[in-house]
Amino acid sequence: MRRRFLRALSRLSGRGLRPCLLFLALTVEPAGAEPREAIPTTPTAASEVEAPRGILKVTWPDIVHLVDQHPRWAAGLLNVTAARAAVSAARAVPNPSLDATIGRGAARDGDLRRLETGLELTVPLGWIAQRRHKVAAARAELDASQDEAEVLRRDVLLQLRVLFWNLAYDQARVAVLAVLESQTAELARSVQRRVEKGEARPVEQSRIEVELEKVANDLEAARISLRVNREQLQLWLGGAMELLVEADLSVVPKALDLDPALAKAQSTHPSIKTAQARVQALSSELTVEKLARIPSVALRAFTQEEIDRRAHGGGLSVDLPLWNWNSGRIAQAQAQLAAGKKQLEAQAREIASSIIESHGACLAASQTATRLKERILPRSEAAASTMERTYQLGEASLFEAIDARRVLVETRRQYLAALVQAQIDCSRFNALVGKEDD
Question: Domains in the chain, start-ordered, CATH in brackets?
Fold first, then answer.
């Protein structure tokens, strides 16, 4: 019965597990050795780690307060400023124009010569009919730019959130692999002593040395990944010190109810509001183009001084729409408005689809992490502990003990990865529905 149990554990271990975590929970010792402290099941919060000198510990609220330093968010705010200036430009009244002429005149029946001058003032009036609609279009563009800035802010926060949790994951992974390397090196020394005493076969020493090299390689790769993610986050925050994030990976996030979140996002999501504002702006621009068919009117006042007379008066200037009734620009504006409405419909559906997808991903990752924590991980630990005692009693070989621990190793790796993935997926869902992460 016991040997069937050992063979079953060996089959469950599989051969596709990552060798870097092969001995993550390996605490087995030769018979008679002092027991060592096992690696904790629950990931250690970064806040419990003492920050080395020259490294700054930051929390997520600290990063949120520094989001104004992000250039994409700053560019969005500048676009809002530009759109607000466009509203002022649309409100502006066109300036009148002044024409001045000067020339030399001579009488037909004499030698009298003198300068002739003339002044003409033109005040345009055609803008009056279009001004209200141009201002409405500019205001709609301002609303669109403000909503686009909110989209940028959410995207920036999500980008920083992903970097934040990836850095937290790499910190935990490096800490685990460092302990693993130490334990594997200690086990390798123990096996070497047993081989020297003739209590173990030389192949066991070779196997342990190979595993130690694999652990060392993966620890170095994890440290490189940690440095890369740290430098990326530090780059966007604009700081000079290295960062150590404070995050509790053991907390499994919970997804909001889908239907209320979906209904709220359909009416408040900034991308949808941006598309609505664009439609409003296009509608106002279509009205402006239709009003452009009305002939433009301008008031004129003039004064002229000639050789034998002096004249002054006023007049009315009206455009003659003989060759162009603005049909092309009206057709263009109508097509653009129809396209804007279709884009609004598509945007609403895309946002709804993204919310449904992100909600499913958040829910799946959270359930996976919870199931690993409450059901799978305790059973894997119990099975690995049983195999450890069997090895210490001399009823199993080192290779069988290693295979038995692989199930626990992979389970712990999946648990840590599921926790981080749940944080990222739920953060993406919260960004779509407008919920700020704590």
Answer: 2-433 (1.20.1600.10)
CB atoms within 10 A of CB 187: 23
Nearest to 155 by CA among 147, 234, 373, 57: 147
pLDDT in tens, 348-384: 999 999 999 999 999 999 999 999 888 888 888 787 7
Biggest CA pair distance of the chain:
141
DSSP letter at 374? I
409 close to 17: Cβ distance less than 8 angstroms? yes
Please classify residue 92 by burial: count the beta carbons closer than 10 Å to its beta carbon, then call 0-12 exposed, 13-18 middle and 19+ buried: exposed
Mean pLDDT, the chain, whole residue set: 80
DSSP string, 170-236: HHHHHHHHHHHHHHHHHHHHHHHHHHHTTSS-HHHHHHHHHHHHHHHHHHHHHHHHHHHHHHHHHHH
Cα 326 to chain centroid distance, Å, stands at: 44
What phi and psi values does residue 18 have, to the nearest 5 degrees?
-70, 125
Low pLDDT (below 70) residues in the chain: 1-54, 107-113, 239-241, 307, 388, 391-394, 396-399, 401-406, 409, 437-438
Q: pTM of this prediction?
A: 0.74
Task: In whole angstroms, give the CA distance from residue 131 to residue 122.
Answer: 19
